[in-house]
Amino acid sequence: MRNFSFLTLILAILLFSSVSIYSQAIHEYAPGTTPIISYEGEGGTVTDADGDWSSVASLPAGTSTSGAACAYLNGKVYHFGGSPGPSADYLEWDEVANTWTNLGPMPGGANYYFSAETVAGKIYLIGGSAGWPTPTGAVNIFDGTTWTTGAPMPVALKDVATGVYMDRYIYAVGGMVGSWADFRDDVQVYDTQTDTWSACTPFPLLAGCMAGCVVGNIICVAGPFDATLTASNAIYEGEINPSDPTQITWTLSTATLRDPAYRSGGGSPGDLYVNNYAFFVGGQSPYSNQAAWYDPATDTYTLWPNKPTPLGNIPNWVPGMNAMYVMGGYDGGYNLACEGMEYTMIPIPVEFTAFTGSVYENTVTLSWETATETNNSGFAIERKSANTEYTQIGFLAGHGTTTEPQVYSFEDINLMPDAYSYRLKQIDFDGTYNYSAIVEVEVLTPGNFVLSQNYPNPFNPSTKITFSLAVDSKVSLKVFDALGQDVTTIVNENLSAGVYNYEFNAESFNSGIYIYKIEAVGVNGNEFVDVKKMMFLK
Question: Is 393 left (phi over 0), alpha (psi -120 to 50) or beta?
């Protein structure tokens, strides 16, 4: 947790105090109302950034653009609901064709002041209102074709800040239950895999109308708006406990937005990218053209060029292929401008943190770890010896895209004595590939003849028998029952010096004790005979 400055601490106390004093006051929404600015803040580290804005196709005339929700899925930006209204329409913008299509009314009905988040190939619409000031708490799910519903929010809220963690959990922070005075500190998390909600550590303020997103395991919310109609430029961080996603440690950042504003747009490229930050744009103060990203790891606030059209009530700052899009908003007249900030989003490569090889008898075990993976189909394991080229000997599936560490291992068995080199061919889903570093090992010639105890023992229905040959030998390996009758021959051939593993499957035999016997005659004339017992239990 970061240290607060004395000034920041006093301001935080004032914010808490104002909430407790005015929590019972009544305020009605008045578009164009100029909010009170509580404090300017220190601003953190502010620097200029490269990049520029460009216009994209505007939403069709008559679209409800204030308090709408937007999300990106499969090359398209979807625009849901909004004010005036509320509206039930949802529209689709094709990122390549740069065209809008009205897809008609949402099955869940009209909605505004709600949130949209994309998780695992589906868009989740969270909360909102079908008519001011009553919140719905609804969860509607859209996969690009089909609509379904999810479990509703335990505490129905509108104007919540949302963000996605681990491509699974959706956090809903703060929001309003009723009219403008009725802000809440509730933090609720929705598990998209189990369709369940859980209560989390509360937000430090009774607030809503915030921009939000998640960066790594940090919830970032900005511009909390409270019951006194006070706009703020504060940024809060909520550190999620990976062991218990309901446990959050909240911290007031020393960095702040440039402009105190509420209902600004927030967004994040997501954990698929190296350059993943919290992005904030616009807001009502009354209307701001601020645009910036915030890095919670360094507490750094970096200004982008100003947004060309100052707007508030911005749905989201939506990540696309290589841009962040702002689709509509509100400037007192429901401005229909749609703009995109060019922003190169660098995919996370498959980052190896270790690749090692170890030898036990005639088996090589390869182990490797990755810190991050993007679009990783898997690993082809390749081997070469002194007299051969690289050939594929196996394949292990990858974990697709993840920022969580992953551990892999592969065994190459029954190797002859030789020097071996191994490498991994990491293959993406689109067929592109990269090679790892090379691991070199040496399998040595055994110094003695050895017959090892089978494993497992007892067994059902199969077990492994291992033996070592000090020199090239004529080998016989047979299995006998308890009466001494020969039941099967496993090996009867000339073998080179080395370590060998053979499987004995007794599925067609009766339970009981069996004896396996090896007879080996080396090229040097030495003979080796040994027997061992094993037990088959069905």
Answer: alpha
Task: Tell me the pairing of strands 363-385 and 406-412.
Answer: antiparallel
Domain spanning 6-342: CATH 3.40.50.11780: no
Question: What percent of the chain shows pLDDT beyond 70?
Answer: 89
Tally of CB atoms within 10 A around 178? 14
- 133: cis peptide before it, omega within 30°? yes
Judge whether 351-443 and 450-536 match in fold.
Answer: yes
Return the H-helix or E-strand segment holding 13: helix 6-22
CATH code, 450-536:
2.60.40.1220
Q: Is 26 exposed, middle or buried (0-12, 13-18, 19+ CB in 10 A)?
A: exposed
Question: Which amino acid is present at 176?
Answer: M
Q: Look-up: residue for tokens 């009723």?
A: 178
- Burial environment of residue 450 by CB neighbours within 10 A (0 to 12, 13 to 18, 19 or more): middle
d(CA 212, CA 114): 12
**27-57 per-position pLDDT tens digit:** 222 323 333 322 222 323 333 344 678 888 8
Question: 365 forms bridges with which residues in the sheet?
Answer: 358, 411
- 382-412 pLDDT per residue, tens: 999 988 899 999 999 999 888 788 999 999 9
The dihedral region occupied by 43, where left means phi > 0, alpha psi between -120 and 50, and beta the remainder, is left
The answer to whether the CB of 214 falls within 8 A of the CB of 279 is no
What pLDDT, in 10s, does the model give residues 411-420?
998 888 888 9
pLDDT at 2: 37
Instruction: Say what the pLDDT of residue 10 is.
Output: 30
- Token pair listed for 36: 């009170």
Summarize pLDDT for 200-254 with one digit per residue, the tens. Answer: 999 999 999 999 999 988 999 999 998 888 889 999 999 999 889 999 999 999 9
We find that the CATH architecture of domain 351-443 is Sandwich (2.60)
Per the DSSP assignment, residues forming a β-bridge with 408 are: 368
* Residue indicated by tokens 């080179």: 496
The answer to whether 347 and 334 have CB atoms below 8 angstroms apart is: no
Amino acid at 495: L
* Domain ranges, ordered by start, for the chain: 6-342, 351-443, 450-536
* Among 441, 476, 434, residue whose Cα is nearest residue 361: 441
CA 283 to CA 267: how far, in whole Å? 13
C-alpha torsion angle, residues 335, 129, 108, 320 (rounded to 10): 40
Q: Rounded to whole angstroms, how far apart are CA atoms 446 and 62? A: 83
